[in-house]
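Researcher: I've been going back and forth with a colleague about how succinate dehydrogenase might be arranged in three dimensions. Neither of us has a model we trust, so I'd like an independent prediction. The organism is Aequorivita aquimaris, in case that matters for your notes. Sequence below.
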Amino acid sequence: MSKLDSKIPKGPLADKWTKHKNDINLVNPANKRNIDVIMVGTGLAGGSAAATLAELGYNVKTFCYQDSPRRAHSIAAQGGINAAKNYQGDGDSNYRLFYDTIKGGDYRSREANVYRLAEVSANIIDQCVAQGVPFAREYGGYLDNRSFGGVLVSRTFYAKGQTGQQLLLGAYSAMNRQINRGKITPYNRHEMLDLVIVDGKARGIIARDLVTGEIERHSAHAVVIASGGYGNVFFLSTNAMGSNVTASWKIHKRGAYFANPCYTQIHPTCIPVSGDHQSKLTLMSESLRNDGRIWVPKKKEDAEAIRQGKKKPNDLSAEERDYYLERRYPSFGNLVPRDVASRAAKERCDAGYGVNKTGQAVYLDFASAIERYGKEQAAIHGNHNPSKDEITKLGKQVIENKYGNLFQMYEKIVDENPYETPMMIYPAVHYTMGGVWVDYNLQSTIPGCYVTGEANFSDHGANRLGASALMQGLADGYFVLPYTIGDYLSKDIKTGKIPTDTKEFDEAENKVRELLEKLVNNKGTHSVDYFHKKLGHIMWNKCGMARNAEDLKSAMAEIRALREEFWKDVKVPGGMNEMNAELEKATRVADFLELGELFAKDALHRNESCGGHFREEYQTEEGEALRDDENFMYVAAWEYTGDPGNEVLHKEELEYENIEVKSRSYK
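Model: Here is an independent structure prediction for succinate dehydrogenase. You can compare it with whatever you and your colleague have in mind.
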C-alpha cells in the first residue's frame, strides 16, 4: 500500500512555493528534447500545460476525444476568472483570495495548495492579456472586475459572458504554435482507455481512434491527466454530454487514489429541468447574481397562481416578494457561495414557493439593476430628470453590454425575454471538487502520473467559489506543473525512448480489447442511455443536494444492481473497428456505474455536512451545514482493490496553521 505523502514544503506559507521551486531538480534544456510527455485532455488545464511544456522543449502528445481542443468543455465557462490584483482598490490580496477559498471550501482543502493558487493567480491575467484575450475594460482602459459568490471584493476578470471560450482560444493558439514547431503531436478524436505502468511508473496509455476504431499504443516518460470532472455521473448536469470520468477512473483502477468523490458542486443558477426528454442542462453564469435579485412569492397562493398561469411575476409588488437570500444573509445577499444559495433555493421550493410548472424554480430578476443603471447613465449624459422609458432603455443597454449573450441564450432556450420577465433558475450539478488525489507536485499515487485542473481534488475543498475553476486550470497548466514535473523527469534524462512492444503494453491493450468486445458482443435489450438515466435518477434523488444515511445505503445497493444489469442487458449496436458513438458512451457509463457506488460510499462514511456535501442528519437549527472538525477534518482518499464499491479508505489529515477554523457565516 502506497503511503499518502503530500510533499508539502516546510517553512512559512508565503514562502513555500518559492522555496520549493528553488529546491526541486531541473532538466537541462538540451535534455528536454529527449523526454516525452502525454497530455490527456486539452481544455484549459491540459492545453495550457501542453503548450508550456512544449515551449520548454519537451516532446508532447495531446489526446482529446473532440475533433479540436477548441471544443473542450472549458469553452462553456461564462462568468470569469479570479485573480488577486486588487485593481478595484477594495482590499484584495493574495491572503484574502487564499482565505476566501479556504472558507468557501468549508475548511476541507489544503492550505499550501490554496495559497499557491492565490499567489500565481495574478500571473495568469498577465499571460492571457499577452495572448490577446479580450478581457472587459473600464472607460479608462483598465481591466474591469466584477464580484462572485462568497467574497466581499471584486476580483473576477471576464470577457462578457464567454470568458472560458476566450481563455481557451488563448491556450489553443499557444498550442498551435508548438504544433507548428513540431513539439506537440495532436491526437484529436482519440480516447484514453487505459494507463500502462512499467516498473511501477506511468509509461504510456492505450488509446482508441474514435474515427477508425483502431487501438493504439503510446509511450512517454510521464502521463498527465487533465480530463475534467465527473458531473455527468448524474446524467443531467451543466457538463457537455461527452464529459466523462474515464481517464481518471482508469488510473484509479491502476493505483491512483480517488479523493472526496462526494464533494460535488450544485450550481444555483441553471435553467430548470423541463422534462425527461432533456439530455443536459444549461448554466446561467453566476456573474448574473451581481445584478440579479433572487426571489419567490411571499405567499403560497401567489406561487400557486404563477404555477397555474393565473399570475405573472411582474404582477407582484416588491412587498409581495421574498428576496430570501437578502433576508437570510444580509452581508452577502445574492452573492453567497454556491452551496448556500443552492440549498436556500431548494428549501423555498420544497416549502411550496417554487414558480414554474414543476414547482422547481425561483426567479432571478434584473428590474432593479435596469432602473439603477438607467438612472446612473442618464445622470452621466446630463439628464437629471429622465422619464421611466428613458431609464429603462439606458439600463437595458448597460445590462446588454455586461450580459447580452447570456440573456440571448436564455431567451432562445426558454422563449421568454429576460429584460422584461425575470429569469427562472434552479440548482443543477455543475463542478466536481473531488477527483484524483495528488500531492503538492500534482503527482498521483502512481509515480509519473500527474493530474491537473478539475480532474484532481486539490484546491477547492467541499465547495468551489465561482470563477475559481478557470483560475485553477490555468494555474496548474501555466505555472505549477511545468516546474514540478521537471523534478520527476530529471531522473529520466538517460532513459531513452520508452518501447511499446513490451508485455505491459500487451497486457493493457488486451484488456481494452476484451472490454470493447464484451460490449459490442453483448446481446442486450436496453440502450446505454437507458442505464445512464437510471443511474442519474438514483444519484440526484439520493446523492444530490441533500443526503441521508438511509438513502445512501439504498443508493449503493441500487447502483450495484444496476451495474450488474448493465453488463447483462446493455445493447451496443455496431462494431468496435469503426466509428461508434454508442460504444464510446458505453465505456464511459460503465465507469460512471462504478464511480457512482464509491460516490455514495464516500458520502455515507462522512458523518457531517460541509460545503456541497449536505447530510440531513447534520445541520444547524437554521438549516446550515454542520461540520465535525474533530472527526472529519481530512481528505478521504480511496484505494481501488479490484472490486468496485469495496475500496479502502486512506486519510490525509488537514492542518490549518494560518487560518482560524470556524463555522462559516455569510450573514
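Researcher: What would you highlight for our discussion?
Model: I'd start with this: The first strand starts at residue 36 and ends at 40. After that, consider the following. The first helix runs from residue 16 to 23.
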